[in-house]
Amino acid sequence: MDMKSSESAYYSGEHGLYHNHCQSMGTRLDVIMHGLEEEKAEQAFEIIYAGISDLEDKLSHFDPNSPISMINRIAAKKPVTVGEEIYAVLELCMEYYNKTSGLFDISMGKVTSENKSGRIESSIISELLQHTGMDKLSLDPAEKSVKFLNDQVEIDLGGFGKGFALDGIKTQLASMEITDAFISFGDSSILAIGNHPHGKGWKSGISHLLKPGESIFDFDLADESLSTSGTGPNNTRGGQNAHVLHPRKGLIDPGFQHVSAVSKLAIEAEILSTALLAASEEEKISLLAKFPDCRAVEIKYNETGMPQVQKYNIE
Amino acid sequence: MIDNQLKRREFIKGFSMLAGATMLSSNSWLSPLLAQEAGSPSVVKLGLIGVGSRGRYLTSHLLANPAVEIVAYCDNYPANLERAGEMVGKNAKAFTDYTELLEMDEIQAVVIATPLNEHAHITIAALNKGKHVFCEKSMAETLQDSLEMVNASRDTGRNLQIGHQRLFSIRFLKGIEMIQEGKLGPITQIRASWHRNSDWRRKVPSPDLERKINWRLYREYSRGLMTELASHHLQVGNWILGEVPHEISGSGTINYWKDGREVFDNVNLIYRYPSGTHFIYDSVSSNEKYGCELQAMGPLGTLEMETAKFYLENPPPAPGILQLINQIEKNIFDVIPIGGASWVPEDPNEDKGTFITDALNSDGSDMQMEAFVNSVRENRKIPGNLEEGYNATIASLLGDQAMMEHRVVTWPDEFKLTK
């Protein structure tokens, strides 16, 4: 048993309630399970922890030793052969790039980081984006290799990793026959399996960003994932709303808003919430049409701070 | 006048917000500050020895105290004497020879802020004349002189307080309390640095005054960065760990200010404590980006004590998660507000820390002078303070020795303080 996780674990015998947390993917992962013996719950947490640590090692573009960093260094010069798992991730990202008509795009890592660090003028961003997009990334299924068509392409799995990890956790829990769990990556990516000990499913509210503790819209999650992206007060730079990088249009200002999406697949919830934030009204409608089983809400705040809720695929 | 009363009340208020009883038992030098105020306090008569910039800074705190009368002051540099005279007024007598000042029977206590090489003999002479003494850190240039200063205080029963103002600073007291409560887990490393980007020189009116004015740069008068700066952080390190280091290694060079100085312009040291914890000290004179800071580290968190900031290794759970746990335990099934875009996933390690106190204005100098004045009035020693000052001085001198002799030095048994 890892010392770090045993120190932070909480177990209450009455409900067989187990809570633990760890740091991963730049945020905090909270795991709540119930109806389990303490030992089994701890084992399950250890397995989850090992899984996401391994995944983070592979997918991080901050860690210079990760396979993704290696690809980012070399793939503009020559094809890079990658492992089965990384190749599958890239293929999946390609599939969703096509399905979202390019609104979900992992190839903008360089532009994103240069924009954030203020190294480039915002005016040239849309020009740089002419050279990005997953059509500038060539995958070879026979060689399991990847090649960038120019040196502006850089992979950033930031809007993908947590969803992918939650889907992995869902599989792990199923194989351990754990049927009820609530798992949260820093509040913004949530997996809800089975039931709350005192009710059906898990009730999750979307927080009012100006009135913490208040919920604006409630989702009943039944073996589903919820992902939220936004330009809230915590996501601002120097008091200004953070602009959102639209894969083709460049920096856009969607105003002070957040978007939450629910799907059976955590990765789809993640992709949708990211894509919806940047999408125009027409793009939103065509996007949701391609994900008929997903539902979403968009919350915008007016000048007086009143939230306005727009529902998608919700009666 | 009122300012000082207010400050004191603020300090006491801040102090009482800490776990008072526990803090007092482990930080007993605070006791003079908590003395009951009954009527107006009697006036304490003080003499000042050494009224250069530091001496005048201490004087400014003394002058803010209505129950202090400065009756005499002494310095052998005329410009200092003149400036101090303007501060303390015409009624105080000026001296150029400290022995004459010590002859004044009405003086109950002296405040010594001379160059380091003058501390020991003046302190011992004053104690032997029955005066209480406040002496700036570090205590002396040698281990033997430092020990003799302690013995003189013990033999005469007079208070000898050493100027380590962090012992009276709310942010350090609060930090120590958090460490003692286990908020960081066991302390596994302390890193301290004091970086400046300056030559540390004062203007010299004529070349023959160079060594007198810039005494900090010459080994005849000082041990440079170690005795003038490092001793502060060494004191805090000992305070945190509740022990003194037993093995010291280090290296120092003059790599930038090759201006005739004899003391190192950059030093790097490792102090190894019996518990196995290392205190790593680092001070340069040619870059100030990382400034002055002391970081206490444990498996649960990091405390930056100069800026009073605390960083958790694992941030606390979101309120929604806590709410969910509470609901389950109370058999409630309800909505929890959770789905928020509450963080920036692409920016790891953006934790800016949380301030552990809002008492950030004072460095503790005001309260340390107040504590000294009160102890003089009560005619008693301040418990614990001299030991802190002595151990910090010995640690800074042993660090200098390790660097000068290029070897690992151990704390000699004969210089370990008995209770």
Distance between the termini of chain B: 38 Å
Strand content of chain B: 15-25%
State the domain count of chain B.
2
What is the typical, i.e. mean, pLDDT of chain B?
A: 90
Strand content of chain A: 25-35%
Q: Helicity of chain A, in percent? A: 25-40%
The CATH topology name of the largest domain in chain B reads Rossmann fold
List low-pLDDT spans of chain A.
Answer: 234-241
Main sheet properties of chain A: 9 strands, antiparallel
Q: Find the CATH superfamily of the largest domain in chain B.
A: NAD(P)-binding Rossmann-like Domain
Main structural class of chain A: alpha+beta
Structural class by SSE content of chain B:
alpha/beta
Ranges of chain B with pLDDT <50 over ≥5 residues? 342-349
Total domain count of chain A? 3
Major sheet of chain A: order of its strands?
A: 1-2-3-7-8-11-14-15-16
Number of helices of chain A: 9
Overall outline of chain B: globular
- The portion of residues assigned to helices of chain B is 25-40%
Task: Describe this structure as you would to a colleague.
The complex is a heterodimer of chains A (315) and B (419). Chain A is of the alpha+beta class and 315 residues long. Chain A folds into three domains: 100 residues, ApbE-like domains (T-fold, Roll); 82 residues, T-fold, CATH 1.10.3980.10; 115 residues, no CATH class. Helices cover 33% and strands 27% of the residues of chain A. Chain A is built from nine helices and 16 strands. In chain A, a hairpin with a 4-residue loop joins strand 1 and strand 2. Chain A starts with a helix and ends with a strand. In chain A, 46% of the residues are buried. By secondary structure, chain B is of the alpha/beta class. Chain B has two domains: 186 residues, 3-Layer(aba) Sandwich (Rossmann fold); 178 residues, 2-Layer Sandwich (Dihydrodipicolinate Reductase, domain 2), CATH 3.30.360.10. Helix content of chain B is 36%, strand content 18%. Chain B is built from 13 helices and 16 strands. In chain B, the strands form two sheets. Chain B has a nine-stranded mixed sheet with strand order 15-13-12-11-7-10-9-8-16, covered by helices on one side. A six-stranded parallel sheet of chain B has the order 3-2-1-4-5-6, with helices on both faces. In chain B, helix 10 crosses helix 13. Chain B is globular and about 80 Å long. About 2% of the residues of chain B have low confidence. Chains A and B meet through helix 1, strand 2, strand 3, helix 5 and strand 9 of A and helix 11 and strand 14 of B. Strand 9 of chain A pairs parallel with strand 14 of chain B.
